[in-house]
Amino acid sequence: MSAVIGSLSEAWAELRHHKLRVMLSLIGIAVSVAAIAAVLTLGDVIRQTTIEQSDRYGGRAATISISAYRTDGGAMDWTAFDADVRAAADRFGFEHVTRRNDQLSTPGSLQTSDFVRPVMVSLADVDYALIHRTSLLAGRWFTAADAEMLTPPVIVTEALWRALGSPSPGTHPTLRLVGPLEGTYRIVGVTPAQGQGDTQKSITLLTDTYVQRTGGVGPNDSLNWEIWASPDEVAQIGPELAAQLRAAAGANVDVAVSRADWGSRPDMEQSVQMFELITGLIAGLVLLLGGLGLVNIQLVAMRQRIREIGVRRSFGATSGRIFMTVLLENVVATAVAGVVGIILAIVVMRALTAFGVLPALQDAPPFPLRAALVAMVAAVGIGAVAGFLPALAAVRAKVIDALRF
Questions:
Q1: Residue 143 scores a pLDDT above 80
Q2: Using an 8 Å Cβ cutoff, are 168 and 138 in contact?
Q3: Which conformational region is residue 73 in: left (phi greater than 0), alpha (psi within -120 to 50 degrees), or beta?
Q4: Buried b vs exposed e over 277-299: b needs ≥16 C-beta within 10 Å?
Q5: Neighbours of 215 (CB within 10 A)
Q6: Is the pTM of this model over 0.85?
Q7: How confident is the model at residue 40 (pLDDT cuts 50, 70, 90)?
Q8: Which of residues 168 and 333 earns the better pLDDT score?
Q9: In terms of Cα–Cα distance, which of 120, 134, 105, 103 is closest to 201?
Q10: What is the pLDDT of residue 405?
Q11: By C-alpha distance, which of 247, 341, 276 is closest to 42?
Q12: 207: how many CB neighbours lie within 10 A of its CB?
């Protein structure tokens, strides 16, 4: 142990003595290590970005989607089926359940100062925003307290919000609907446009608000239910939930239960893994090239240090001690370069996030520990490989070479 510690001490002293040479030879190693760490971190960011984008459409993992319709052509009793779904959710311990309809067949009628204009109407419940990671441009999503508001809440799209003059939700703006949804509604939130070409003017109401105003869901419309369940239990719970709902709904109702989240599509995870593999191989190739350059520099430097090696041998330094000292010089140097590379990767990733190059995430992943570990192992490994040949050359140096002038 003392021999190893002594070799490390000598290696560190040698690095301090040749700062400029070490710095120039390790720039490539530090950049390569930073690339490896950044690639692994970027892989986590891309994975989380893909997950959150998928969650906005299909729900979080694991979201169970439930739909139903009558096979005899009769009218579906949505109130009774909703009670069946809620009862089943209570039995299984599900805390988050939402009803949804992305677009009713009959548009609403919005009264403006000049004329009545049609607007698309969608339905959702309080838990919809949580299950789908719904982000708002302004204001808030529905809350449980909204059921007690005298003026029912409504969430509008960005296009409709701008057409209304972009009022701040904090000023309690309202809009008026005529027809079956007759009444005044308070705008509590604004959903952002889905791209530059999104000009759809629509509103989202609480399902209970719509039912109270219209008396129920129309014959040409339907409701879907979504339940946020544990990913570990959904495979077992899903069939049991479907069986219970079919038994409660009766023989004339067909109930479909399936998963809608990204966890049911393994191809998404495979695409992220493929990205990490390809970019990781490129970064590894850069690291290998940096290691080859380090070998050449250290071999040249070893020829200049042949007198130093010979003097050490003349004073009793063993071949093993000389070998370990030279080898550890490279390992310590590349380890330092690895630390610098990891710090550089952290700074670069934070800068990309701060300047908006990377997307803003609700659950932004921290700098992964595995990225730091992989980068350090790669740096130390390339240092050991790059130091082997110079260390071997140092061992073969003869004492008599130190006496030549």
A1: yes
A2: yes
A3: left
A4: eebbeebbebbeebbebbbebbe
A5: 9
A6: no
A7: confident
A8: 168
A9: 120
A10: 47
A11: 276
A12: 22
